[in-house]
Write a structure and sequence with these properties.
The protein is an alpha/beta fold and 279 residues long. It contains 9 helices and 10 strands. The strands form 2 sheets. An 8-stranded parallel barrel has the order 1-2-3-4-5-6-7-10, surrounded by 4 helices. It has a two-stranded antiparallel ribbon with strand order 8-9. Strand 4 (101-105), helix 4 (114-129) and strand 5 (137-141) form a beta-alpha-beta unit. It is globular. The two termini are 12 Å apart.
């Protein structure tokens, strides 16, 4: 796998790429703008082009992540309009930076009718992609089930993608902590989950992985990342899941907290060691 971590864009997009290279990343993730806001950003296109050129020269893959308030299942028209405009802005920045796509969470809907929530997600994706002609994709991320019982299964992600008007512009990002927290994967049933995902065609559209350990046990629906090696998933769990051939060459992004003993550089080395890819 192309192991890396999330980095800050402090100093610009090129600075983020240089920062990632300095950490030994083969891939990195970044927020294209303020992660707490849906405001559209006027960005430095020349800086973004320099980022893209640097990544090409050094063989680094980059992935953007939409701001946290980007809820595909937002109901109010004003809120939906802001999400759609923000995601288009994120895609534009990602394209300029040479990134493979923009990760966005599946969506949070707490209404009585789950089908209404799914329709909102599909409608938001269609609205964004009807206005987008670039190569960067929207990468839907599976959820932990902590905020709403949606988007935790590969069946949901595959079906939502298939129902979009432009599915070729939609891919997936698999978060290991979310998968574990939701109870879909308990660290031991990797073979069964991988079989399901294969039969569904999930891996045909998987573009990135968030390689995060979990602070809580499987099935508790607690979305809390732990530094690799300190959480409940552990080396064997990661090895069983990410050792499947479908994960080879994909970017594996670490989003976990850092500690004095476990900075991201050390956590990346651990993941490579667990997967038998240590340099």
């Amino acid at each position: 796998m192309r192991v890396g971590c999330h980095v800050s864009i402090r100093g610009g997009y090129l600075a983020a790429a240089v920062r990632a290279a300095g950490l030994g990343c083969a891939a990195f993730q970044y927020f294209p703008k303020n992660p707490r806001s849906l405001d559209v950003k006027a960005f430095d296109r020349a800086d973004a082009r320099r980022c893209a050129a640097y990544c090409r020269e050094h063989g680094i893959v980059s992935v953007a992540h939409a701001p946290y308030p980007a809820n595909l299942a937002a109901e109010r028209p004003e809120a939906r309009g802001r999400v759609i405009a923000s995601l288009l802005n994120d895609l534009e920045i990602a394209e300029a930076c040479g990134s493979i796509g923009v990760v966005v969470h599946f969506g949070t809907y707490n209404g009585a009718d789950p089908l209404a929530g799914y329709r909102l997600v599909i409608g938001a994706l269609d609205a964004v992609l009807a206005c987008w002609d670039g190569s960067a994709k929207l990468l839907i991320e599976n959820q932990a089930g902590d905020r709403a019982p949606m988007g935790t299964t590969p069946e949901e992600l595959v079906r939502i993608r298939a129902l979009c008007s432009r599915p070729e512009r939609v891919g997936f990002c698999l978060d290991t902590c979310h998968l574990f927290a939701s109870g879909e994967w308990d660290g031991r049933n990797a073979a069964d989950w991988i079989r399901r995902a294969r039969e569904l065609g999930f891996f045909d559209h998987l573009a990135a992985v968030h390689a995060n350990d979990s602070a809580y046990a499987s099935g508790l629906r607690r979305d809390r990342h732990a530094p690799l090696g300190t959480g409940r998933i552990g080396a064997d769990g990661f090895r069983r899941l990410l050792g499947a051939p479908e994960f080879r060459r994909l970017p594996a992004i670490i989003e976990t907290p850092e500690t004095g003993d476990l900075p991201h550089a050390r956590q990346m080395r651990l993941l490579r060691e667990w997967l038998g890819e240590d340099e």
